Amino acid sequence: MLDAAPSSAARLRTPDWYRSATRWTQLTLAEDDPVKFDPQQWIGIFKQTQSNATCISAGGYVAYYPSKVPLHYVSKFIGDSDPFRALVDGARSLDMHVMARVDPHAIHQDAADAHPEWVMVDRDGNRMRHWAYPDVWVTCAYSDYNFKFMPEVLREITRDYDIDAIFANRWQGHGVCYCDACRTDFKTASGHDLPLTNSLDNPAWLAWGAWRRTKLSRLVVEWDQVMKAIKPHTSFIPNMGSVSLMEFDLEMIEKYCPFLCVDDQGRHGTEPVWKSGRNGKRMRATFEDRPAILITSIGPEEAYRWKDAVTTGAEIRAWMDSGTTQGLLPWFTKFNGVVPDTRWIEPVAESFDLHARLESALAATQPVAEIAILDPTTTLRHHDHVSRRVAEAHDMGFYHALVEARLPFEMLSDAVMTPERMDRFKVLILANSTCLSTEQAEALAAYVARGGSLVVAHETGFRTPDNQPRETPVLADLLGYRLTRAVRGPVKNTYVALNGDHPINQGFDGAERIMGGTHLLGVEAVGESEQPFLFVPDFPDLPMEEVYPRDAPRDAAMIARQHAGGGRTVYIPWNIGAIFWEVFAGDHARLVSNSVHWALGKRPDVEVEGRAVLDLSVREGDGTTVVLINNITNPMMMKGPIREVYPVGPLTLSLATPNGRQLRAVERLSTGDDLEFSFVDGRVRVTIAELETLDAIQFHWS
Question: Which domain of life is it from (predicted)?
Fold first, then answer.
């Protein structure tokens, strides 16, 4: 086994303390907890879960210590106690790292009366009471409440308590605030009045996004400076979900966020199990070496806000293990210090224990892949949280198709498309990167010239980085097409016909045509290329007697090119990612898989055989390869919560042998057992008799 990472104790109160903070317990207190909860019970939970770091409620909306800051509301149940200190001291006695939690999104009546300018204002000019608890008021995130009052709270906590960081929840505000200060500030900065709509065609909305980014970036910097002036090793850690990488300037995050927290606490609706792991890929798509943490709730994550409930143990483990598979550090959060339902403790402890057993191998390796999805940050930063879900459907569809195909892959942000980072992959997928700059397009063309391959779909490159339409799509020449008709849709009853004999249209035995998309572009192939699929001209879907094609297939529904430098490109001029994400048609999954396999131009380095749905991750280090296999085979994998684990097996893992390497041993990290292996066609093969949830297979090379 590899040597373990340095202990938490060795890094206590040092600037790099966060590197040994690898398993987190978060306790978010309720106001009456000072007279109801048992701090010693939580010290025991710290031990049972092998947590080496904790995040504890301290202040902001409610202070859980005897604060002296004027207008800082202290829990009315606190009496002579100091529950925050009790938890901090208990954690430090276990050599744990400690982060204080603050929540600045609401204030009580006395503060609102004293400072009405701290309160958020809606578009009709009304001060905003809290949507869930109207007795209090929602704060304006861009006001002096955050820029003058909260720094005093941070100073007090940093000065008086033994902490490493302060973590802020709900610090970014809740949309556009129409208070007088925001109106004046925004007008001065942009020349616009505050936007009344979030339309991507509204220049004021786009300008507001930039203004908000500047204000909140300044807030992060100032809060961090407040803390470091008192204790230089401390940091302010903003709660920054994966979408925050699109909302904030990367230079600010690089300098002021030593680690990243993904506040995606569980799945809801029909979200798949792999979605938590996707956050890990997205984080390192921009910051490849920065630790990232997945916050998991022990309760259900639904719109109905059962925040003090417990979901199934299998669901908790599935969400955490998906994060671990893709490199996220585990963190669980419990709302309310009282523990009336203990069913969550054992599954959390089991998942944390598995992470502890994998930790040394994970710490000594880095993710690698032959394939990457380009994360379209240039496009998505123009969207709000509602429209972003629609825009991301294209990427989600490709993501799920690759999981089904058992193709290990990473993500790469279009904000960091350097040759070094691009060349780590043999295939880049642009599911619908609508907004691309000329420089980004040139980088992609140079990548293809160096031998890289692209799979591109729909309206990629149709708009500028400022979301303005282009007359000619910026990648058209590279992909070999001329646009003949703008996108149309939604349309029904569309089909694409197999055209000739090509690797991309293999596996559809018995079919002359398959389902098409719902938003279609008209394109003409130019230059040397092949068209594995053609559009079937439209025909009615009713009356039923009229449902038949009138004309033969024509016009390219896919363009495949081989380039002089060895690279390949595939262009699909319809919304294959989004429609697959909506419908999950098997033919669309095969079409994506075939396109990526053809673009790769070789057998994938990692393959897994067996009947199962698996999420894979591959990591490499000095003399070692680690393949993580996450079993997500479950009737509830798309609609939770999972009731129980469905074990799978046998599975056969096949790995291409690195050049010049000889295999010494293969180890199953969950148990420490050595596995038998064999060699076939220059590949090592290992059989796993049964897999329950997550395991890692480590190959030791000489």
Answer: Bacteria
